[in-house]
Structures are given as structure tokens and as C-alpha cells.
Specification:
Helix content: 25-40%
GO molecular function: UDP-glucose 4-epimerase activity
Protein name: UDP-glucose 4-epimerase
Strand order of the largest sheet: 3-2-1-4-5-7-11
Radius of gyration: 19 Å
CATH topology: Rossmann fold
Structural class: alpha/beta
Distance between the termini: 35 Å
Shape: globular
CATH class: Alpha Beta
Keywords: Isomerase
EC number: 5.1.3.2
Order of helices and strands: EHEEEHHEEHEEHEEHHEEHEEHH
Number of strands: 14
Enzyme class: isomerase
Strand content: 15-25%
Number of domains: 1
Mean pLDDT: 95
Length: about 300
């Protein structure tokens, strides 16, 4: 199968591309490589891989035409990144997503990377039928794009839990990753709104989720699915205390509220009924992250963009 991955040089994109190649697919990466090419160097020799340096904001979308499936991962991801780059968030997360959706033929499957962040600060159990109320620009742009994309029949939208774990193109700002690196390099972790909860999942389980969608197209086509595990629903305090079991550091509670006010519980029953389950625990991720950050300080490798 011919599969194109936008954002294929990203945190989830690289291991997804690797897994698709291992499964025997012909894979095309489309990415602007703003963080460099290092994350994909180990894939360059793969004969079924094609790489295109392009930006999804560009008008020419002809690179999409030869694909059977498009995994659309390219995005400004996360609350702080979108708040710092609101124009780019709008143009990439929403405008480009709509243009890609409109460009594809009815026979091309589009799998969209959405987010559970669209549930906002409900504080209650949210499933795919719950009225959504995003509280961040990231959640808003993803929701608006999802609504347009799901108007075409040959689409699947996957609402992901917050991802953690080690991957070739690390994102050290993701909550679990961030907490571990701060515990190691700063020796102190300040908790803002420490009791707020959301669901997490390992990056490898995210990759498995995309492959699952590819293998269950007939059951999932035209649907929206929360992807994660109810067993991985944690508060910030829970995460800090789990890390503290492996690493000695100080946990400081702040009376100040976090600007990122997400607080929700998510039901993953719909995807689970089809057979999808996460295989990695929070502790699995913490252990590998500690191993990484003991020799890697992300703040020592900052590059100009």
C-alpha cells in the first residue's frame, strides 16, 4: 500500500514511518524538517521510503495524489507551542488540514491526528458523543479541522491522549517527558494545578493505534475514536509521585493555577470494543526517560529555527 505521512519526521511520525516500512508499505514522508534531518537518518537506506521536503502550508498538494492512505500528523502540537505561534497554528492545524482534505479523492483514506484536548476542562467522563469545549488554541484548531475532515466519508479521526516516552525526535515539553527531565536536571518540580487530570499514552502505543486504524478501516471509516487507556488517567501529582519512586527530587506545590487548564476523564470504550488496547504503562515510559535524560539535557541542544 502507498502511504503518505505528513509530519513524518516528528515525534510520532518517525516511529510510525518505521513501523509502516516494517509492515511492507511504500511510505512517503512530507515534512518541512524544521528540526533537522537527524531523526530520519536511520531510515534513509530503506528502499520503500521516499522523503519530500515541503510545508503543508504551500499551495501545491500534488504530492498527495499517488497515495492510497494519508496519515495527517503535521501540526503545531500542544498548548504552549500554539500560544507562542498562533498564526502558524491556524494556518497549519486548520487551514492546511482543510486544504488537504479537500484535495484528496474519495478513494483516498485520510487518517487525522486529533486530540482529547478538545474536551477542555469538563472534569467529567467524556466519550465521542460528549459536547466538546476546548480551552486552548491547540484544541480549537484541531476540533475545527476535525469537523471539516469528517464531512468526507473516507476519513477517520483519532483523538489521542497526551503522549510520552522516548522517540528519535524527542519532544521534551510533553508533560511526562518534561517532568522527568526537570526532576533530573533541576532537582525540583513545581506543580501548578496539581490535581488536574488527563489521560496519557506511550508513543509506541500511539504508533500501534495508527496501524490498528489501518487494519480496521471497514469498522472505523467515517468515525471519531478516542485513543488511549482509562488505566492511564493521571493527575500531575500522580505523575510526579511515580517519577519520585525512581528519582530523588523535590516536589513543590504552587498556589498559582496553570494556564493550561485541561481537566477531563476520557472513555476509550469505543476503540477498545474493536480490540485496541495500550501495552505500555506510565512506569515503562518513566524508566526509559530517566535513562535518556541522565545523559541528555534538552536545554543544551537548543538550535535557532
Amino acid at each position: 500500500m502507498k502511504i503518505l505521512v505528513t509530519g513524518g519526521a516528528g515525534y510520532v511520525g518517525v516511529p510510525l514511518v518505521s513501523a509502516l516500512l516494517d509492515a511492507g508499505h511504500q511510505v512517503t514522508i512530507v515534512d518541512n524538517f524544521m528540526f533537522g534531518f537527524e531523526s530520519v537518518l536511520h531510515l534513509v537506506s530503506r528502499p520503500n521510503l521516499k522523503m519530500i521536503k515541503n510545508d503543508v502550508r504551500n499551495e501545491d498538494l500534488s504530492y498527495l495524489d499517488d497515495s492510497d492512505v494519508v496519515f495527517h500528523l503535521a501540526a503545531i502540537s500542544g498548548y504552549p507551542e500554539c500560544e507562542a505561534n498562533p498564526n502558524s497554528a491556524q494556518r497549519i492545524n486548520l487551514d492546511a488540514s482543510i486544504r488537504i482534505s479537500d484535495h484528496l479523492s474519495k478513494d483516498q483514506l485520510l487518517v487525522f491526528a486529533s486530540t482529547t484536548s478538545i474536551y477542555g476542562a469538563s472534569g467529567s467522563v467524556s466519550d465521542e458523543e460528549t459536547e466538546v469545549a476546548p480551552v486552548s488554541l491547540y484544541g480549537m484548531t484541531k476540533l475545527q479541522a476535525e469537523r471539516v475532515i469528517m464531512q468526507r466519508e473516507n476519513s477517520i479521526s483519532l483523538r489521542w491522549a497526551t503522549v510520552f516516552g522516548v522517540a528519535p525526535r524527542m519532544r521534551s515539553g510533553l508533560m511526562v517527558n518534561d517532568f522527568v527531565q526537570k526532576a533530573i536536571h533541576e532537582g525540583t518540580l513545581v506543580l501548578y494545578s496539581g490535581d488536574s487530570k488527563r489521560t496519557f499514552m506511550h508513543v509506541n502505543d500511539s504508533v500501534a493505534g495508527y496501524l490498528f486504524a489501518l487494519e480496521h478501516v471497514d469498522q472505523m471509516r467515517g468515525g471519531v475514536f478516542n485513543m488511549g487507556s482509562e488505566e492511564l488517567n493521571y493527575s500531575k501529582r500522580d505523575i510526579a509521585e511515580n517519577i519520585h519512586r525512581y528519582e530523588s527530587f523535590e516536589i513543590v506545590d504552587s498556589s498559582m493555577c496553570d494556564k493550561d487548564v485541561r481537566h477531563f476523564y476520557v472513555s476509550y470504550a469505543k476503540a477498545k470494543a474493536l480490540g485496541f488496547e495500550c501495552q505500555y504503562s506510565l512506569d515503562d515510559g518513566i524508566v526509559e526517560l530517566i535513562k535518556l535524560y541522565r545523559f541528555f539535557n534538552p536545554h543544551s541542544f537548543i538550535k535557532a529555527i
